[in-house]
Amino acid sequence: MKICQFWERCCRLTINIKNLGFAVALVVGLILLFPSLLFAQKAATKKSTNSKTAKKSTTSEKKPDAAPQTQEEAQKYFNSGVSTLDRVKLNLRRDVSLENRSSIATTIIKDLIDAINDFNKTIELRLDFAEAYYRRGTARQILSAAVPSNSQKAAIQIILKDFDKAIELKPGYADAYLARAWHLTTDDAFAEGLADLVKAVQDCEKGINLNPKLGEGYFVRGNIKHRQNKLSEAMADYDKAVQSISSVIAPDVLYYKRGVIKDSWKDYRGAMQEYTRAIGFMPSSERSYLNRGTAKFYLSDNSACDDWSRACSLGNGIGCNNVAQFCRR
Asked: Which pTM value belongs to this model?
């Protein structure tokens, strides 16, 4: 896949390694402890009721000791994974020249794998950590878009299982519902026969009901309506998403899609403004430069060639063709 295509796909797993050392240590420990348990059981029958109570009290005091330590370790891995994933999102929004994208792409992929491994370790220590499943699903989602698997269908299913588990553990988890809705409506999901618009809409409604101020819910629902060619309804949802733009995961994509709809309505000036906003969030968005250049062309704006040239420099072939055809100087 070309680096420019990688970049565009990024902007919208790993195997769970069980702790074999822990399992072996547990078995050996039980074997060594077993004779002592038998002895203690015999001795207990000769002791008074007070002694039994004291023993039970001692035992009950020991049990919780490991739990806080395990939770603390799980939280450490989780925080590390979140920090790495946040770094990935920042790198995706950098204005990087085409020639430098390859090295940045390598860094992003490594960070994604590291984040997934951290979330794996978190889940090994705490099987009930809903946020870890959600974050791992998100990291896998980005990695799948960046580096398509040989079995893309299986990769999609693995990601969906993470979101399913997050929702199972935390039924009021609005972000997880919206992430699952998004994943059920991607181009890859349609290509692999896993798309489910009905379920995706239900997830959007659930997410919106749980948190009406979360702009991502309106954005994802707008995408579904856009795909169904219900453009007015899609724009209405996009309008609501803009009102909560800080909570939209990919604001550049939101404004780009608004521009596409306005293009279809021949509102080229409005479309140009939307693409400009998209570029503000994603300075290396080749498709936004391409479409803004086309909108300017229809408005007889001479700077159209500048946008097409920028799109071309970012690796967009159509931009290069437009420069060659319309921008002879």
From this structure: 0.75
